[in-house]
Amino acid sequence: MSIAQQCKFYGHFITVEKALAIRDAASANERNSLNFECITCGKPVRPHHAGDRCAAHFVHLTRNPECKYIDPPSFL
Ligand SMILES: [Zn+2]
């Protein structure tokens, strides 16, 4: 089990830092159409900023217990 620090974005692997930069540069409308995908299960993910207990990482939009990448509970 690990947290995801890379995702797939239009066919390219990008880091969570890059994804955060893309999201922060996007308008509110554009954010809804950003298509970050989990590199393991292909489900939609979103980048999450680093917090007190966790490095920056991706979380599934809908929790996916089947995926090797866990969704840390700290952001809830
Ligand atoms: Zn996944």
The spatial strand order of the largest sheet comes to: 2-1-3
Q: What is the percent of helical residues? A: 10-25%
Q: How many β-strand stretches?
A: 5
Provide the succession of SSEs: EEHHEEE
Shape: globular
Low-confidence residue ranges:
none
The Rg value, from CA coordinates, equals 12 Å
Average pLDDT across residues?
90
Bound small molecules, which ones? zinc ion
Secondary-structure-based class equals: alpha+beta
**Share of residues in strands:** 25-35%
- Largest sheet descriptor: 3 strands, antiparallel
Distance between the termini: 19 Å
Give the count of structural domains.
Answer: 1
Total helix count?
2
Question: What does this protein structure show overall?
Answer:
The model has no long low-confidence stretch (mean pLDDT 90). The protein is of the alpha+beta class and 76 residues long. The protein is globular and about 30 Å long. β1 and β2 form a beta hairpin. It has one domain. The strands form 2 sheets. Strands 2-1-3 form a 3-stranded antiparallel sheet. It is built from 2 helices and 5 strands, in the order ββααβββ. Bound molecules: zinc ion.
